[in-house]
Every structure is written in C-alpha cells, then in structure tokens.
Amino acid sequence: MTTTTTTSNTSNNSNAQFNFFKMCIGRPVVVKLNNGVEYRGILEVVDGNMNIVMEQTEEYLNGQLKTKYGDCFLRGNNVLYISAQPRK
Q: Looking at domain 3-84, does it have CATH number 2.30.30.100?
C-alpha cells in the first residue's frame, strides 16, 4: 500500500502529518520536489519545516535514474509531496 501526504500549512492536518512521518521513519519513501525531481530512499529524519534526511538515496528526473547518494538532505520548502513505499 502506498500512502501519500502533501505539504499544508493548516493546523488541522498537523497531527495527521506528524503521525504519517513518524510511521515512515526507517521506511522507503519517494520525495518529489516542486521542480519535478524525485528522490527515493530510506527516510531517516523529518522536522516541522519538512526538512528531510534520507539514506540510500537515488535521484530521478523524468523517471530516469540520474545520481545515487549515500545520505541526502532536502530542504522542506522545496518538497511537493512525500509518498511511503512498500518495504522491499
């Protein structure tokens, strides 16, 4: 099952988003940025500003693998969505 959350500034969604992120720590996720680039890897940390730390990260552009990173930091204001992926 794939679960997706979008960024939102409303306080009603804060608890649901926090619970979603807590559930995703240590799991594979896809993070899509506003510019269309996707990062796929293991979610390690996410903070209240949507800043994200991932491990085993791969960068995709137009569905094609561009680069592999060990660790990756994504600034929250660039995040369009985070999608939890099934465990492999």
A: yes
Residues 6+ apart with CB under 8 A from 73: 51, 52, 53
Q: How far apart are CA 14 and CA 36, in angstroms?
A: 25
For 33-54, what is each residue's pLDDT tens digit?
999 999 999 999 998 888 999 9
Give the CA count within 13 Å in the CB-facing half-sphere of 17.
17
pTM of the model: 0.78
Q: Spell out the domain ranges in the chain.
A: 3-84
Residue 56's pLDDT is what? Answer: 96
Q: How far apart are CA 24 and CA 22, in angstroms?
A: 5
